[in-house]
Amino acid sequence: MGVRPAAFAGVGRLSADFAGGDTRVFPWFGSGRMLGPGGDNGVTPMGGAMDYQALFSEIDRAVEPALSSGQVAQYIPALAKVDPGRFGLALAEVDATTAAQGTGDWLVPFSIQSLSKVFTLALVLAADGDALWARVGREPSGAPFNSLAQLERQHGIPRNPFVNAGALVVTDRLLTLTGDARGALRDFLRDECGNAAVDFDPVVAECESSHGHRNSALAHLLADYGRLDNPVPDVLEHYFWQCSLTMNCRDLALSARFLARHGLRADGTRLLTRSEAKRVNAVMLIGGTYDAAGEFAHRVGLPAKSGVGGGIIAVIPGRSVLCTWGPALDRHGNSTAGIIALDTLTTLTGWSVF
Ligand code: GLN
Q1: CB 91 within 8 A of CB 104
Q2: Helical H runs in the chain?
Q3: Is residue 177 situated within a structural domain?
Q4: Cβ(343)–Cβ(273) under 8 Å?
Q5: Engineering a disulfide at 272: which of 50, 156, 180, 277 sits with its beta carbon 3.0 to 4.6 angstroms away?
Q6: Is the whole-model pTM more than 0.85?
Q7: For position 31, what pLDDT does the model report?
Q8: Which of the listed residues 160, 164, 332 should we mutate to test ligand 1's pocket, taking the one with most ligand atoms within 8 A of CB?
Q9: What are the backbone angles phi and psi of residue 88, rounded to the nearest 5°?
Q10: Tens digit of pLDDT for each residue in 165-211?
Q11: Residue 38 domain-assigned (yes or no)
Protein backbone atom coordinates (compact mmCIF):
# COMPACT_ATOMS: atom_id res chain seq x y z
CA MET A 1 0.00 0.00 0.00
CA GLY A 2 1.51 3.35 -1.03
CA VAL A 3 1.55 6.11 1.52
CA ARG A 4 2.51 9.64 0.53
CA PRO A 5 4.86 11.35 2.95
CA ALA A 6 4.06 14.59 4.70
CA ALA A 7 4.19 17.54 2.30
CA PHE A 8 6.78 19.90 3.70
CA ALA A 9 7.15 22.99 1.53
CA GLY A 10 9.16 22.09 -1.54
CA VAL A 11 10.65 19.02 0.05
CA GLY A 12 8.29 16.21 0.95
CA ARG A 13 6.04 16.48 -2.06
CA LEU A 14 8.82 15.68 -4.48
CA SER A 15 9.95 12.56 -2.72
CA ALA A 16 8.87 9.07 -3.65
CA ASP A 17 5.95 7.26 -2.10
CA PHE A 18 6.80 5.22 0.95
CA ALA A 19 5.35 1.76 1.30
CA GLY A 20 3.11 0.95 4.25
CA GLY A 21 4.57 -0.85 7.26
CA ASP A 22 4.27 -4.44 8.32
CA THR A 23 0.65 -4.34 9.41
CA ARG A 24 0.89 -7.72 11.14
CA VAL A 25 3.40 -6.28 13.56
CA PHE A 26 2.45 -2.66 13.92
CA PRO A 27 -1.09 -2.31 12.60
CA TRP A 28 -1.55 1.41 13.09
CA PHE A 29 1.10 2.26 10.50
CA GLY A 30 -0.63 0.42 7.68
CA SER A 31 -4.24 0.89 8.66
CA GLY A 32 -4.45 4.65 8.94
CA ARG A 33 -4.43 4.67 12.75
CA MET A 34 -1.33 6.85 12.68
CA LEU A 35 -0.74 8.89 15.79
CA GLY A 36 -0.98 12.65 15.35
CA PRO A 37 -2.92 14.87 12.94
CA GLY A 38 -3.84 13.48 9.51
CA GLY A 39 -1.86 14.38 6.39
CA ASP A 40 -2.88 14.66 2.74
CA ASN A 41 -4.16 11.10 2.65
CA GLY A 42 -5.31 10.86 6.25
CA VAL A 43 -2.54 8.38 7.08
CA THR A 44 0.66 10.36 7.30
CA PRO A 45 0.64 13.41 9.54
CA MET A 46 1.24 16.82 8.02
CA GLY A 47 2.78 19.80 9.73
CA GLY A 48 2.28 19.21 13.45
CA ALA A 49 4.44 16.95 15.57
CA MET A 50 3.75 13.23 15.43
CA ASP A 51 3.90 11.11 18.57
CA TYR A 52 6.72 8.68 17.93
CA GLN A 53 6.78 7.26 21.43
CA ALA A 54 4.90 4.06 20.55
CA LEU A 55 7.37 3.36 17.74
CA PHE A 56 10.31 4.09 20.02
CA SER A 57 8.96 1.65 22.62
CA GLU A 58 8.85 -1.11 20.02
CA ILE A 59 12.43 -0.31 19.01
CA ASP A 60 13.63 -0.26 22.63
CA ARG A 61 12.06 -3.69 23.11
CA ALA A 62 13.75 -5.09 20.01
CA VAL A 63 17.16 -3.70 20.92
CA GLU A 64 17.21 -4.65 24.61
CA PRO A 65 18.23 -8.34 24.28
CA ALA A 66 21.16 -7.38 22.00
CA LEU A 67 22.70 -4.68 24.14
CA SER A 68 25.39 -7.00 25.45
CA SER A 69 26.32 -8.52 22.07
CA GLY A 70 29.24 -7.17 20.07
CA GLN A 71 32.34 -5.44 21.33
CA VAL A 72 33.22 -1.83 21.99
CA ALA A 73 36.04 -0.62 19.68
CA GLN A 74 39.32 -1.80 21.24
CA TYR A 75 41.89 -0.29 18.88
CA ILE A 76 41.23 3.23 20.17
CA PRO A 77 41.79 2.82 23.92
CA ALA A 78 39.76 5.92 24.81
CA LEU A 79 36.71 4.27 23.22
CA ALA A 80 37.28 0.87 24.84
CA LYS A 81 36.11 2.28 28.18
CA VAL A 82 32.60 3.17 26.99
CA ASP A 83 29.70 1.22 28.55
CA PRO A 84 28.46 -1.22 25.84
CA GLY A 85 24.96 -1.25 27.32
CA ARG A 86 24.03 2.27 26.25
CA PHE A 87 21.43 2.87 23.55
CA GLY A 88 19.87 6.01 22.12
CA LEU A 89 17.91 6.99 19.04
CA ALA A 90 16.93 10.40 17.69
CA LEU A 91 14.67 11.31 14.80
CA ALA A 92 14.64 14.75 13.16
CA GLU A 93 12.01 15.52 10.55
CA VAL A 94 12.77 17.56 7.42
CA ASP A 95 10.68 20.46 8.66
CA ALA A 96 13.44 22.63 10.10
CA THR A 97 11.05 24.17 12.62
CA THR A 98 10.27 20.81 14.26
CA ALA A 99 12.36 19.72 17.23
CA ALA A 100 14.03 16.32 17.15
CA GLN A 101 12.57 13.49 19.21
CA GLY A 102 14.29 10.54 20.76
CA THR A 103 14.55 7.71 23.22
CA GLY A 104 17.05 6.22 25.67
CA ASP A 105 20.49 7.81 25.75
CA TRP A 106 19.75 10.11 22.83
CA LEU A 107 21.14 13.16 24.62
CA VAL A 108 24.35 11.49 25.85
CA PRO A 109 27.42 12.69 23.88
CA PHE A 110 29.64 10.08 22.20
CA SER A 111 32.60 10.03 19.83
CA ILE A 112 31.32 10.61 16.29
CA GLN A 113 34.35 8.98 14.62
CA SER A 114 33.52 8.10 11.00
CA LEU A 115 30.16 9.84 11.08
CA SER A 116 32.35 12.91 10.50
CA LYS A 117 33.15 11.59 7.01
CA VAL A 118 29.66 12.36 5.70
CA PHE A 119 29.98 15.99 6.68
CA THR A 120 33.52 16.52 5.37
CA LEU A 121 32.45 14.95 2.08
CA ALA A 122 29.46 17.31 1.87
CA LEU A 123 31.62 20.35 2.65
CA VAL A 124 34.14 19.44 -0.05
CA LEU A 125 31.44 18.80 -2.66
CA ALA A 126 29.76 22.07 -1.72
CA ALA A 127 32.97 24.04 -2.27
CA ASP A 128 34.55 22.08 -5.07
CA GLY A 129 31.84 20.25 -7.02
CA ASP A 130 32.77 17.11 -8.90
CA ALA A 131 36.55 17.57 -8.81
CA LEU A 132 36.86 15.24 -5.83
CA TRP A 133 35.69 12.24 -7.84
CA ALA A 134 38.93 12.24 -9.82
CA ARG A 135 40.73 11.33 -6.59
CA VAL A 136 38.21 9.06 -4.84
CA GLY A 137 35.98 6.30 -6.18
CA ARG A 138 32.36 5.63 -5.37
CA GLU A 139 32.24 1.87 -5.35
CA PRO A 140 31.60 -0.54 -2.48
CA SER A 141 34.82 -1.52 -0.75
CA GLY A 142 34.22 -5.18 -0.01
CA ALA A 143 37.16 -4.80 2.38
CA PRO A 144 37.69 -3.53 5.93
CA PHE A 145 37.52 0.25 6.33
CA ASN A 146 41.23 0.52 7.08
CA SER A 147 42.58 -1.83 4.41
CA LEU A 148 46.08 -1.04 3.16
CA ALA A 149 46.07 -3.86 0.63
CA GLN A 150 43.07 -2.44 -1.18
CA LEU A 151 44.63 1.01 -1.48
CA GLU A 152 47.78 -0.53 -2.91
CA ARG A 153 45.76 -2.60 -5.40
CA GLN A 154 43.88 0.54 -6.52
CA HIS A 155 47.10 2.54 -7.03
CA GLY A 156 46.20 5.08 -4.37
CA ILE A 157 42.60 5.76 -5.47
CA PRO A 158 40.43 4.86 -2.48
CA ARG A 159 37.31 2.87 -3.31
CA ASN A 160 35.00 5.48 -1.77
CA PRO A 161 35.10 8.52 0.56
CA PHE A 162 34.05 6.51 3.61
CA VAL A 163 36.88 4.01 3.88
CA ASN A 164 39.68 5.64 5.88
CA ALA A 165 41.89 6.22 2.85
CA GLY A 166 39.06 8.01 1.05
CA ALA A 167 38.26 10.10 4.10
CA LEU A 168 41.92 11.14 4.36
CA VAL A 169 41.78 12.41 0.76
CA VAL A 170 38.57 14.32 1.56
CA THR A 171 40.14 15.87 4.66
CA ASP A 172 43.23 16.80 2.64
CA ARG A 173 41.01 18.62 0.14
CA LEU A 174 39.00 20.33 2.88
CA LEU A 175 42.24 21.48 4.45
CA THR A 176 43.35 23.03 1.16
CA LEU A 177 39.98 24.69 0.64
CA THR A 178 39.55 26.11 4.15
CA GLY A 179 42.98 26.15 5.80
CA ASP A 180 41.32 24.51 8.82
CA ALA A 181 39.44 21.32 7.98
CA ARG A 182 38.53 20.34 11.53
CA GLY A 183 37.44 23.90 12.41
CA ALA A 184 35.27 24.15 9.29
CA LEU A 185 33.62 20.86 10.20
CA ARG A 186 33.01 21.85 13.83
CA ASP A 187 31.53 25.22 12.84
CA PHE A 188 29.24 23.62 10.28
CA LEU A 189 27.95 21.10 12.82
CA ARG A 190 27.39 23.79 15.43
CA ASP A 191 25.40 25.84 12.94
CA GLU A 192 23.26 22.95 11.74
CA CYS A 193 22.29 21.61 15.14
CA GLY A 194 22.24 24.97 16.91
CA ASN A 195 24.49 23.75 19.70
CA ALA A 196 27.56 25.95 20.16
CA ALA A 197 28.94 23.49 22.72
CA VAL A 198 29.75 20.83 20.10
CA ASP A 199 33.49 20.30 20.37
CA PHE A 200 36.48 17.99 20.00
CA ASP A 201 37.62 15.56 22.66
CA PRO A 202 41.39 16.15 22.91
CA VAL A 203 41.88 12.91 24.83
CA VAL A 204 40.32 10.86 22.00
CA ALA A 205 42.24 12.83 19.37
CA GLU A 206 45.54 12.29 21.17
CA CYS A 207 44.75 8.62 21.71
CA GLU A 208 44.00 8.10 18.02
CA SER A 209 47.14 9.89 17.07
CA SER A 210 49.35 7.80 19.31
CA HIS A 211 47.68 4.53 18.20
CA GLY A 212 47.14 5.56 14.58
CA HIS A 213 49.78 3.49 12.86
CA ARG A 214 47.41 2.10 10.27
CA ASN A 215 45.93 5.49 9.37
CA SER A 216 49.43 6.85 9.24
CA ALA A 217 50.43 4.05 6.86
CA LEU A 218 47.40 4.81 4.66
CA ALA A 219 48.30 8.50 4.53
CA HIS A 220 51.91 7.76 3.62
CA LEU A 221 50.81 5.34 0.91
CA LEU A 222 48.47 8.03 -0.49
CA ALA A 223 51.33 10.53 -0.42
CA ASP A 224 53.59 8.03 -2.19
CA TYR A 225 51.07 7.86 -5.02
CA GLY A 226 50.97 11.68 -5.11
CA ARG A 227 47.36 11.81 -3.91
CA LEU A 228 47.72 14.35 -1.07
CA ASP A 229 48.26 18.10 -1.43
CA ASN A 230 49.21 18.71 2.21
CA PRO A 231 51.93 17.16 4.38
CA VAL A 232 50.97 13.79 5.87
CA PRO A 233 51.19 14.96 9.53
CA ASP A 234 48.79 17.86 8.83
CA VAL A 235 46.25 15.64 7.09
CA LEU A 236 46.42 13.07 9.89
CA GLU A 237 46.05 15.67 12.61
CA HIS A 238 42.90 17.15 11.06
CA TYR A 239 41.51 13.66 10.44
CA PHE A 240 42.07 12.50 14.04
CA TRP A 241 40.53 15.67 15.42
CA GLN A 242 37.48 15.47 13.16
CA CYS A 243 36.91 11.90 14.39
CA SER A 244 37.19 13.05 18.01
CA LEU A 245 34.18 15.37 17.83
CA THR A 246 31.71 14.53 20.57
CA MET A 247 27.98 14.83 19.90
CA ASN A 248 24.69 13.27 20.89
CA CYS A 249 22.09 11.56 18.69
CA ARG A 250 19.85 14.62 18.61
CA ASP A 251 22.56 16.99 17.40
CA LEU A 252 23.80 14.51 14.80
CA ALA A 253 20.30 13.90 13.41
CA LEU A 254 19.72 17.66 13.18
CA SER A 255 23.13 18.22 11.56
CA ALA A 256 22.53 15.62 8.84
CA ARG A 257 19.09 16.93 7.99
CA PHE A 258 20.36 18.60 4.80
CA LEU A 259 20.63 15.08 3.34
CA ALA A 260 16.91 14.50 3.81
CA ARG A 261 16.16 18.06 2.65
CA HIS A 262 17.79 17.48 -0.76
CA GLY A 263 20.73 19.72 0.10
CA LEU A 264 19.04 22.51 2.09
CA ARG A 265 20.67 23.62 5.34
CA ALA A 266 18.88 24.38 8.59
CA ASP A 267 18.66 28.08 7.70
CA GLY A 268 17.11 27.31 4.31
CA THR A 269 20.21 28.12 2.28
CA ARG A 270 21.55 25.51 -0.09
CA LEU A 271 24.65 23.47 0.81
CA LEU A 272 24.41 20.89 -1.97
CA THR A 273 22.53 20.74 -5.23
CA ARG A 274 19.75 18.22 -5.35
CA SER A 275 21.96 15.94 -7.43
CA GLU A 276 24.87 16.23 -5.01
CA ALA A 277 22.64 15.39 -2.05
CA LYS A 278 21.32 12.38 -3.96
CA ARG A 279 24.88 11.29 -4.64
CA VAL A 280 26.02 11.58 -1.04
CA ASN A 281 23.06 9.42 -0.05
CA ALA A 282 23.93 6.95 -2.82
CA VAL A 283 27.52 6.67 -1.63
CA MET A 284 26.26 6.16 1.93
CA LEU A 285 24.11 3.31 0.70
CA ILE A 286 26.97 1.53 -1.09
CA GLY A 287 29.75 2.28 1.39
CA GLY A 288 28.51 3.93 4.58
CA THR A 289 28.66 0.70 6.54
CA TYR A 290 31.83 -0.57 4.84
CA ASP A 291 31.98 -4.19 3.73
CA ALA A 292 28.60 -4.83 5.36
CA ALA A 293 26.81 -2.26 3.15
CA GLY A 294 24.96 -4.97 1.22
CA GLU A 295 23.72 -6.66 4.38
CA PHE A 296 22.74 -3.27 5.82
CA ALA A 297 20.78 -2.35 2.67
CA HIS A 298 19.13 -5.76 2.82
CA ARG A 299 18.05 -5.33 6.44
CA VAL A 300 17.45 -1.58 6.75
CA GLY A 301 17.09 -0.19 3.23
CA LEU A 302 18.31 3.33 3.96
CA PRO A 303 21.45 5.34 3.14
CA ALA A 304 23.51 5.33 6.33
CA LYS A 305 26.91 6.03 7.83
CA SER A 306 28.39 4.28 10.83
CA GLY A 307 31.26 5.14 13.16
CA VAL A 308 33.30 3.01 15.57
CA GLY A 309 32.04 5.18 18.42
CA GLY A 310 28.79 3.24 17.92
CA GLY A 311 26.79 5.87 16.04
CA ILE A 312 24.79 5.35 12.85
CA ILE A 313 23.15 8.15 10.86
CA ALA A 314 20.40 7.00 8.48
CA VAL A 315 18.56 9.19 6.00
CA ILE A 316 14.97 8.90 4.81
CA PRO A 317 15.05 11.34 1.87
CA GLY A 318 12.19 13.82 1.99
CA ARG A 319 11.10 12.68 5.44
CA SER A 320 13.63 12.58 8.27
CA VAL A 321 17.06 11.67 9.62
CA LEU A 322 17.71 9.08 12.31
CA CYS A 323 20.72 8.75 14.52
CA THR A 324 21.27 5.72 16.73
CA TRP A 325 23.98 5.09 19.29
CA GLY A 326 24.99 1.69 20.67
CA PRO A 327 28.73 1.35 21.39
CA ALA A 328 29.00 -2.44 20.95
CA LEU A 329 30.11 -3.21 17.38
CA ASP A 330 29.93 -6.18 15.04
CA ARG A 331 33.02 -7.47 13.24
CA HIS A 332 32.63 -4.86 10.48
CA GLY A 333 32.71 -1.98 12.98
CA ASN A 334 28.97 -1.24 12.84
CA SER A 335 26.77 -0.87 15.94
CA THR A 336 24.82 -4.06 16.63
CA ALA A 337 22.05 -2.25 18.51
CA GLY A 338 21.86 0.48 15.87
CA ILE A 339 21.30 -2.02 13.07
CA ILE A 340 18.56 -3.79 15.02
CA ALA A 341 16.90 -0.45 15.82
CA LEU A 342 16.93 0.73 12.20
CA ASP A 343 15.87 -2.68 10.88
CA THR A 344 12.95 -2.62 13.33
CA LEU A 345 12.01 0.93 12.39
CA THR A 346 11.93 0.40 8.63
CA THR A 347 10.18 -2.96 8.99
CA LEU A 348 7.44 -1.54 11.19
CA THR A 349 6.92 1.70 9.28
CA GLY A 350 7.85 0.83 5.71
CA TRP A 351 10.02 3.97 5.64
CA SER A 352 12.78 2.56 3.50
CA VAL A 353 13.93 3.88 0.13
CA PHE A 354 12.89 0.58 -1.44
N1 GLN B 1 38.91 7.23 13.76
C2 GLN B 1 38.60 5.92 13.30
C3 GLN B 1 39.74 5.38 12.47
O4 GLN B 1 40.32 6.14 11.76
C5 GLN B 1 37.34 5.96 12.48
C6 GLN B 1 36.94 4.63 11.95
C7 GLN B 1 35.46 4.40 11.96
O8 GLN B 1 34.71 5.05 12.70
N9 GLN B 1 35.02 3.43 11.21
O10 GLN B 1 40.12 4.25 12.52
Answers
A1: no
A2: 27-30, 53-63, 77-80, 116-128, 148-153, 164-178, 181-193, 202-210, 213-224, 232-243, 249-255, 257-260, 274-287, 293-299, 336-349
A3: yes
A4: no
A5: 277
A6: yes
A7: 34
A8: 164
A9: -145, 155
A10: 999 999 999 999 999 999 999 999 999 999 999 999 999 999 999 99
A11: no
Q: What confidence tens digit (pLDDT) does each residue in 69-93 have?
A: 789 999 899 899 999 999 999 999 9
User: Mean pLDDT throughout 301-317?
Assistant: 98
Note the Cα 9 to chain centre separation in Å: 24
Cα of 330 from ligand 1 centre, angstroms: 14
Give me the pLDDT at residue 40, please. Answer: 32
C-alpha–C-alpha distance, residues 71 and 221, integer Å: 30
Residue 195, domain member (yes or no): yes
* DSSP secondary structure code for residue 306 in this structure: E
Q: Please tell me the total count of domains within the chain.
A: 1
Domain range enclosing 340: 53-349
Of 147, 308, 329, 331, which is best to mutate to test ligand 1, by the most ligand atoms within 8 angstroms of its C-beta? 308
Buried b (16+ CB within 10 A) or exposed e, 288-303: bbbbbbeebbebbbbb
- Does 198 fall in a domain? yes
CATH code of the domain covering residue 114:
3.40.710.10
pLDDT recorded at residue 51:
66
Across-strand partners of 322?
91, 314
Q: How far apart are CA 35 and CA 23, in angstroms?
A: 15
